[in-house]
User: Fold this.
Amino acid sequence: MFALQNRVAVVTGGGQGIGEAICRRLAAAGAKVGVFDLSEANAARVAKEIGGVPMVGDLTKEADLDRVFAQIQSAAGPVDILVNNAGVASRKGRDVPIWESVREDWEFVMNINVTGLVLCCKAVLPGMMERKYGRIVNIASIAGKEGNPKMGPYSASKAAVIALTKSLSKELVGKGDICVNSVSPAVIQTPILDQLSPEQINMMLSKIPLGRTGKPDEVAALVHFLSSSDCSFTTGFCFDISGGRATY
Assistant:
């Protein structure tokens, strides 16, 4: 069940944290995984350990995307699965109320979390529609549903990810077995927490009934199902993985 033999997957931000856990999970299920990361060292390390393909580039630059997606096509074949995991919480140290934010705070976060995601989708969708098969999983956040104080750009960007997931899923109706879903984690123990103050982290933890951060492997398990052919009648949905924070 949830087997991924003969499938080619690309995971953005695959060199650490949730992305790395997803790469390992999909590879263990049989997929050939492209580990897409801005860090050459991280991409190479994870790809080597799972027998995948390192893809090094900036997902906000279309020239980089043309190069790395041609690379995975040549090395492994057409992309069947895209996991849009790469993201940032803020410009480091800039978890501030909206009235103290500046334009650069918003542009930095939205460019990576939203524009980069859209560009990656555009890179794989023509092939998925031609072959009439594909799975796209977008990593959003519980902040995109509830809004976190002093995280306006991040909350807005993740709300956009959820809405884009719903919009794209409807646009693909009738174009084959192509499902697009999103996942909204609460606080997961990853290096992205280094971008936030201890006070911000404690505030988010206080909202989780289970009383702990989530683990990257727990997110990867959910993404595994959404990346498989078994996920065939679910599209346009946002799955919470929040330790009980989201109860609606």
Q: What stands out?
A: The CA atoms of residues 36 and 55 lie 4 Å apart. Helices lie at 17-28, 40-50, 62-75, 103-131, 143-146, 152-171, 198-205, 216-226. The chain has a mean pLDDT of 94.
